[in-house]
Amino acid sequence: MNWLRLFLALALWPGLWATGVCFAGLLRSAASTPSFPWWAAACFAAGWIVSGLAYLFLPRPRGLYVLGHELSHALAVWLSGGRVHSLQVAAKGGRVVSNRTSAWITLAPYILPLYPLLAGVLWLASLQAWPRLLDYQLGFLGAWGAVWGYHYAFTFDLLRTKQPDFLVYGRIFSLTLVALANLLLATALVWSFFRPVPLLTLLTDLGRNWVWTYTQGVHWVSGLLLRYLPPPA
Fold first, then answer.
1. pLDDT tens track for 170-218
2. 3-class SS letters over 25-77
3. Where along the chain do its domains lie?
4. SS3 content of the chain, % helix, strand, coil (to 5)
5. CA–CA distances in Å: residue 143 to residues 14, 53, 128, 213
6. Which of 26, 66, 90, 189 is the most core-located residue (most Cβ within 10 A)?
7. CA 21, 155, 193, 136 torsion: positive or negative?
8. Could you tell me if 134 and 106 are in contact, meaning their C-beta atoms sit under 8 angstroms apart?
9. Residue 89 pairs with which residues in a beta bridge?
10. How far apart are CA 195 and CA 210, in angstroms?
11. Residue of 112, 108, 100, 98 lying closest to 174 (CA atoms)
């Protein structure tokens, strides 16, 4: 089974590249529009950078991160129709005991950024109740960037450790799924905020990139086989 997951992960690498190319193109399209909110993007980026520096040089809110980490596991269990029996949280780590497990449940904290998404939902709900909060949008974007920055700072820090979540289904398989899921999430968020192209165009471009990348891969492998394998007798 481990060899099968490794093969599946390697088979997803061209799709990962294709998704990254699509995301980069979407970002360029959004940034090239005259109405692109550069100040908003700068505030978000500044919050991200500040949180990264704070993560390196200040005490880290590890207990708060572990809580969100375990809640993400629990949320994935519930979304999968399972039942959570217990949830334990401590500064050094946590644990969720449930009646169901899967790659989605195991990798949920790295695929489902709980705190950033929760902050975004709360902001949108607050705007519905108090529309004048829109005047403080730049401040929120700076804070939101900091929340995202902390999320990814903790995530990248775990990548260099023997985190059990990455070992259950194999490190290469797990990291491939996490990278692909985060690229798709980033693509969805950029499109939701800026909508530089119609959704159908985005999906078509994404599918076209996948097909082109895998087609080129098949041609390359076929060329290698024809070049190095002996001809049939």
1. 889 999 999 999 999 999 999 988 888 899 999 999 999 999 999 988 8
2. HHHHHHHCCCCCCHHHHHHHHHHHHHHHHHHHHCCCCHHHHHHHHHHHHHHHH
3. 1-33+163-221, 35-101+114-160
4. 75, 5, 15
5. 35, 14, 19, 38
6. 26
7. negative
8. no
9. 94
10. 21
11. 108
